[in-house]
Amino acid sequence: MNYCEEQIEYLEWQAQAEKEKNANPCDVAEGVYMLVDDASPSESPVYFRSLRGAVDWAENDDQYISYQGQEQWSVYRVGGKVL
After folding, report:
1. Span 49-76, mean pLDDT?
2. Alpha-carbon distance 9 to 64, whole Å?
3. Among the listed residues 67, 74, 63, the one whose alpha carbon sits nearest the alpha carbon of residue 35
4. What's the rounded Cα separation, in Å, for the pair 78 and 61?
5. 43 has pLDDT over 70
6. How far, in Å, are 7, 43, 45, 56 from residue 63 at the CA level?
7. Taking the complete model, does pTM exceed 0.70, yes or no?
8. Cα–Cα distance list, 10 to 6, 14, 15, 16, 83 (Å)
9. How many Cα neighbours within 13 Å face the side chain of 45?
């Protein structure tokens, strides 16, 4: 394996790590979007770096899956409602 191949692998790894970082919950200090469980307002919001990460999380997590066709979550940008 030469240097060029190792560099390409490293860059691919970096891109994958960044993608995963944006799709997973983060600390409130890093979060730009917060996912709120409307069905359980006492639950703490979950913070995300990207809107797509918050929406994907809500659509795939059992806690936020719709009940009888009604969505049970909202996404807020820190400072205003987005969805």
Report:
1. 82
2. 36
3. 74
4. 22
5. yes
6. 40, 11, 12, 13
7. yes
8. 6, 6, 9, 10, 36
9. 19
Structure tokens at 8: 């390409």
Q: 1 pLDDT band (50/70/90 cuts)?
A: low
Question: What size, in residues, is the chain?
Answer: 83
Q: Give residues with Cβ within 8 angstroms of 16, minimum separation 6.
A: none
Higher-confidence position of 20 and 47: 47
Give me the sign of the Cα torsion angle 45, 46, 48, 53. negative
Judge contact between 48 and 25, C-beta under 8 A: yes
DSSP string, 27-72: -TTT-SEEEEETT-TTSPPEEESSHHHHHHHHHHSTTTS-BTTB--
